[in-house]
Amino acid sequence: MTADLYPIYKLINQWYISPGSNGYCSSQQPGNAVSRIWSLTQRALRQSATRTSKPPGVALKFILGPAVLTVSARLFCHIAYCEADVNNNTPVEVVAKSPAPEFKWHILWEFVKPQLFALIGAVVLAFGAAILNIQIPLMLGDLVNVVARYLREHTGNYAHEIRGPALKLLGLYGIQGLLTTGYIILLSRVGERVAADMRKTLFASLLRQDVAFFDANKTGQLVNRLTADIQEFKSSFKLVISQGLRSITQTVGCFISLYIISPKLTGLTVVVLPCLVGAGALIGSFLRKLSRMAQEQVAKATGVADEALGNVRTVKAFAMEERELQLYAYEVDKSCEINENLGAGIAVFQGLSNIALNCIVLGTIFAGGTLISSNELSPGDLMSFLVASQTVQRSLASISILFGQVVRGISSGARVFEYLTLEPTIPLAGGGRIPYHSLMGRVDFMNISFSYPTRPGHQILKKLNLTLPPSKTVAIVGESGGGKSTVASLLERFYDPTSGVIMLDGLDIRTLDLSWLRGQVIGFINQEPVLFGSSIMENIRFGKPEATDAEVINAAKQANAHRFITGFPDGYNTVVGERGVTLSGGQKQRIAIARALIKNPSILVLDEATSALDAESERVVQEALDRATKGRTVLIIAHRLSTIQGADLICVMSNGRIVEAGTHLELLSKGGLYSDLIRRQRAEGQQ
Ligand SMILES: Nc1ncnc2c1ncn2[C@@H]1O[C@H](COP(=O)(O)OP(=O)(O)OP(=O)(O)O)[C@@H](O)[C@H]1O
C-alpha cells in the first residue's frame, strides 16, 4: 500500500519542488524533500493503521500535513528566490535622467503583425495548459479519495481502483507537458523574431541619424538600447504572455474550484491569501530596490574596469595600474557590501514567508480536518483544496512579479521605440545627382552662419564666403578652434548651416542626394583616420564596396601604401586590429587615403591629414596626397606650412570669417594675419 502512495508524493514533489532548480532551492535536493515526506508518510500510515477507528481525515492529516508543509515551504522559497532572481538578472542602465519616452503600441503592433499566427498559437496553447493546470488538483483529489477509501475499508482491488484516476492524471500531465512545450517553442520564436526585427530596424534608424544626433547621445547609451533594452523588452513580452495568461487563468479557475470544493474554506483563504501576497509584494519591492542598487554598483565597477582596459596604453604610459586597481577594488567592495545586504534581505524574506505559509497550511489542514470530521469534506477534497490553493498562491505571486516586469518591459520598449521613429533632419537619400561627365566640382559657401546644435548660442561661422574653384586646391588656415574643420563638416553635410547656402556647381547641396554626395563626390581624410577591425583589403574597399581587387591595389599604389602592405606576411589580408591599432599612424593614414581615392572623388577634403605624423611619415603621406589631389577640387584644412605649399589659394580664417585670401607670397607680402601665423609657427619650431 505504501508503495502505491509513493508516486503521489513524487508527483507533488516534481510539480512543486523542481522549479527551484537554480539558486537557493537547488542547494536542497528535491530527493531530500521526497525522502523526508516519505518517511513522515510511512510513520503516519503506521500510526493510522493502529488507529483505524479514527476518521480517515485524521490519518490523511498526518499524511498530507507534513507533505504539504514541506512542499509549501519549498514553493514559497522558490517564489521568493525567483522574485529576487528576476530582479538580480535585470540589466540596469546607468544613464543620465531624461524625460521618459512614451510607449507606442502601434509600433509594437508593426513588429508583432508578421508573427501573429505563431503568437495566437502560443496564446491558445498557454491557455490550454493553464486550464489543464486547474484540473490537476481536482484529479489529485480523486486519486487521494481512492487511497483514503482503501485505508478506511481495506476492501476491493486497490491497484485496479487507483489505475483509472492515476492514468487520467498521467494523461493530463502528458498533455499539459506537450502544450507547455508547444507554447514555449512558439513564444520563443515570436520573441526572438520580434527582437531581431527590432534590433535591425533600430540599428538602421540609428545609422540614418545626423551627426548632430551622435553629438548629443553617448555611444554607450545607444548600444544599450540595441542590446539591454531590447533584451529586457523581449523577456517581458514573453513572460507577460506566458506567465501572465497562465497565472490569471489559473487564479480565476482555481478560485472557482476552491469555491466548489468548499465555500467555507475558500472564505478563510480569501481573507488570508491576499494579505500574505500583499506583504510578500511589499518586502519584494524593497528587495528589488536593493537589488537595483547592487546592479548599479556592479555597473559602476564594470565602468571603471572598462575604461582602464579600453585605455590600457594610457594607463601603462602613466604607470597608473596600481591606482586603477585601487579604484576598481573600491567599487567592487561597495558592490560586495550591497550584495551581502541583499542576501541577508532575501534570507529574512524567505524565513518569514516560510513561517507565514506554514501557518496558513496548518490552519487550512486544521479547518479542513474539522470539516472532514463533521463529514462536510472528503479527504480527496482537502487534498484538492490544498493543491488548488497552492496554485492560486503561486499564480498570485507570479502576477505580482509580473507587474514589475511589465513596467520594466514598457519602459525598455519605450526607449527602443523613441529612436525607431526618430527622423533625421538631413535625409540620407532623395534629391538630384549631377551626371559624372558634367560634374565640375566648384563649391561656393555663400553667407554661411553656423552654430552647433548642441551649443546653439555659440556662433562658429559668421556670414562666411568661400569659393573652391574646380580642380584647384584651396587651403584654410587660422587659429585653433576658429572653425576650419566646421567648414569641412558643412561641405560633407554633417550639419546644415543655420543660414546661407552651400552650392555645388551652382546647385544648393540640400537639393542633392546625400548618399551620392558623400559616397561618390567627396573624399574626406582627417587627422585621425579610423579603420575597422577587418583586413586591409576590406578597409580600402569600404570606400567602394563593389571595387575589384585590382582597383583596391591601384588605390593603395596611388596612396603610397602598396609597398608596406605587400611587406606584411598576409599582404592585403592582414587584419588591422581594433580601429587599426596594429598599424603605424602613417600606415593608417595611407590606407585612409586609398579608401578615399578608390571612389575617385571629384572633391577631396584633407583635414589636417598629416599633422599627427612624424617628419618621415609626413613626407611619404604628403607625396601620396600631392598625387591624389591632381585634377581634383581640394579643400585643405591646415596648420603646417608644408601642407599648404602646393595650394592655389590660401584663406585665413578669423572670428568665423575668411579675412585674407591669396597665394602664399601674396599673403606674406601683405604682412597681415597670415604673416603673423607663419612667424608664430616658425618661432614655435614648426615648419
Ligand atoms: N561637435 C561639436 N559640437 C559642438 N561644438 C563643436 C563641435 N565641434 C567643434 N565644436 C566647437 O566649434 C569650434 C570650432 O571648432 P573646429 O573644430 O571647427 O575648429 P578648428 O579651427 O578646426 O580647430 P583646430 O585647428 O584646433 O582643429 C570650437 O570652439 C569647438 O569647440
Automatic annotation (TrEMBL):
GO cellular component, one term: mitochondrial inner membrane
UniProt KW Mitochondrion keyword: yes
Xref: PROSITE patterns: ABC_TM1F, ABC_TRANSPORTER_1, ABC_TRANSPORTER_2
The keyword Ion transport appears for this protein: yes
Protein's GO biological process: oligopeptide export from mitochondrion; potassium ion transport
Matching Pfam families: ABC_membrane, ABC_tran
UniProt xrefs under InterPro entries: AAA+_ATPase (IPR003593), ABC1_TM_dom (IPR011527), ABC1_TM_sf (IPR036640), ABC_transporter-like_ATP-bd (IPR003439), ABC_transporter-like_CS (IPR017871), P-loop_NTPase (IPR027417), Type_1_exporter (IPR039421)
GO molecular function ontology, one term from the record: ATP binding
SUPFAM superfamilies: ABC transporter transmembrane region (SSF90123), P-loop containing nucleoside triphosphate hydrolases (SSF52540)
Span of domain ABC transmembrane type-1: 120-408
CDD domains, sorted: ABC_6TM_ABCB8_like, ABC_MTABC3_MDL1_MDL2
Family: Belongs to the ABC transporter superfamily. ABCB family. Multidrug resistance exporter (TC 3.A.1.201) subfamily.
Protein's UniProt name: Mitochondrial potassium channel ATP-binding subunit
